[in-house]
Amino acid sequence: MITVEHLTKRYGEHVAVDDVSFRCEPGTVTGFLGPNGAGKSTTMRMICGLTPSTRGSSAIQGVPYRQLGNPGRHVGVLLDAAAQHAGRSGRETLALCARVLDVDRARVEELLTLVGLSDPAAKRRVGGYSFGMRQRLGVAQALLGDPAVLILDEPTSGLDPEGVYQMRTLLRDFADRGGTVLLSSHQLREIEAVADRIVMIAKGRVVADGAKGDLLTTSGGTRVVGLDPVALRTALVAAALPHRPADPAGAYLVDAPAEAVGRAAAHAGVVLVDLRPAEHEGLEEMFLSLINSVPQEIGS
Fold it and tell me: Most Cβ neighbours (<10 Å): which of 25, 113, 145, 271?
């Protein structure tokens, strides 16, 4: 389990992470999402004890990371696949980690095969690896201590479609066996395919946190597009109809029946080009609508 409570990180006047709280339960994959600069990496570094928090706390299995004995046996971490010794082979990298973690050497060969780095790739120096191969090695390194928790930042970057599918299967199997996964990624479709829960942050704050099915289900609302998006928004505000952007093209999701939306538009003289019940909302649509709705003055 991962517990994050009111984590905040300031760099002078700049607030990188602002009062972030969430939990990752055993048996689940939690997708950790947000645009560039949202505070994802800073949050993960604080959880892993690499960056001190200004305020708040985090724990893994009920203990702060820095207080874990032999932490690699409890939590596997991949934050930067490039941070590997270029002069060692993939096999040597894992073998050295196995000695540090006091893990059976046989585990090295098992994991090299699991992530698709068996011979001859295992014999090559890491300096000659592609970025995708470094990602595979980083995931193998995270799994080496047979941890109960995985914290992974962009583990599928640089992987081909087959590699992405293999990684998704690996993480899903890990969680199904009772493991806890915190997974950051910009590949929204992959997160949608593998995650049980979603935590989304923007400008340092949590803007969504819950079960994937609950967050992606839209019920009782209306999707509307106007010929003039600004005039449509003004009409919705004037009619006191709760709404939020559905996509950058100017569509809105309105928490009201289609009749009420149509009457508000007609009263304001707004021409509509689309008016229909809202359908199931995908992760990409939810991501865009939430990020676009965050006030500019929040965070930095």
Answer: 145
